[in-house]
Each structure stands twice: as structure tokens, then as C-alpha cells.
């Protein structure tokens, strides 16, 4: 049922993302109202009952210059990346009308959080996370660079993600793969989009420390708002 909900949300985007050169057209808010750009770097799950978040890669551009993956990451209290959870590898296929679909499961063990892609094999992973993408420039399967929703972690310092959010729990995550160009300052605007349900931005930067320590349960963190 949740997969069907995500697919129905993604229908709003079927008219957006026509191929343009080596990437897809400018990111645009979905139709239907209630959507806005959200500059939060860190997110958390809203479906606490099942502990589930759902992601679907859409409009993957087969003509893009590079292959890219998509995943979630955690940071520690010093802002260092501690864990990464790969959701879609560089071979994932999107497109219309449906793309690759993946649920991400979360559970609280009492001493911390874990995540799983199949609800069977669990790894240590906090329930507050950002999004990242590894970029493969060549054909040797080596990662050439990695970009994060927190631009301070990016080698070029640019914003490579743009996220459209609809309260309370739906998001579209757009990604641009070019080193040295942010998603809002290049004509090569975005290379893939991932739709998600059951996630929400976390509101206060300082709360990340409490998440990492397991002190506030489901409180939140978000990066400072950036002007567009």
C-alpha cells in the first residue's frame, strides 16, 4: 500500500524531467500545491510504527555523462560522516512510469538505531540522516567524488541536492553530479530524482547531538536555511 502511495505521489512529476542535453531539465516543484523547496540537510522517519521509509528512483537519465548512486549517511557530534547506507547503486534504473523501488527499515534496539534494506539484515545506523551520492566518472568502478546534502562536506563546497517537500512526509530529492557546479548555478541542472515518503526534515542543528547520543528519541536537526 505504501509503495502505491509513493507511486501516486510520483505521478505528479511525470511531466517534469524531460531530457535536456547531458542531464535533465531544471528542478521544478511538483504540481498539485503544498510543495516547497526545503534546505534541510538532515531528515528523519515519520512512520515510527513500522519504522519504514520508502524511496523510488525516477527519471534516471541514461544520457548522463556519469553514473551515480544514492544513499543515506550519518554524522557524529563533530560533523564527521560515520555511516553510509547505499540505497541505489550506480546501476539503478529509473524512468517513467516506474523506477527502482527500495524500502529502508529502521528499528530502535534500546541502545541505538539500526537500519536495513530487507528488514532482515541490520546495520548500525541513526534515524537522523542526510543524503549522499557517489559519482563514477570513468568505467573502472572507482568512486571519483561523493556529494552530500550538507554542502560543507563537499569538496567543491557547492549544493548538489535540491529537495522539494510536502508536509507531512513526502519529498523529491534532485541531484546534480558535476564537480564545481551547484544544482542552482549550472545549466546542467540535475541528473536523477528520488521520490520518498515517510520522511521529514529535522528542525534544529543542535539537536543532532542528542540524536547521536540517543537522548531525545525522535527529536531533530536541520542545517541553516540557505538563500536561493
Keywords:
mainly beta; 2 helices; 17 strands
Walkthrough of the structure:
This protein is mostly beta strands. It has two helices and 17 strands. It has helices at 2-10, 208-213, and strands spanning 19-20, 23-24, 35-38, 43-45, 52-58, 67-68, 70-75, 81-88, 101-108, 113-116, 123-124, 128-136, 145-148, 161-166, 170-175, 192-197, 199-201. An eight-stranded antiparallel sheet has the order 3-14-15-16-5-9-10-11, with helices on one face. Strands 4, 6, 7, 8, 12, 13 and 17 form a seven-stranded antiparallel sheet that branches. 39% of the residues are buried.
SSE topology:
Blueprint: H1 2-10, E1 19-20, E2 23-24, E3 35-38, E4 43-45, E5 52-58, E6 67-68, E7 70-75, E8 81-88, E9 101-108, E10 113-116, E11 123-124, E12 128-136, E13 145-148, E14 161-166, E15 170-175, E16 192-197, E17 199-201, H2 208-213
Antiparallel strand pairs: 1-2, 3-14, 4-12, 4-17, 5-9, 5-16, 6-12, 7-8, 7-12, 9-10, 10-11, 12-13, 14-15, 15-16
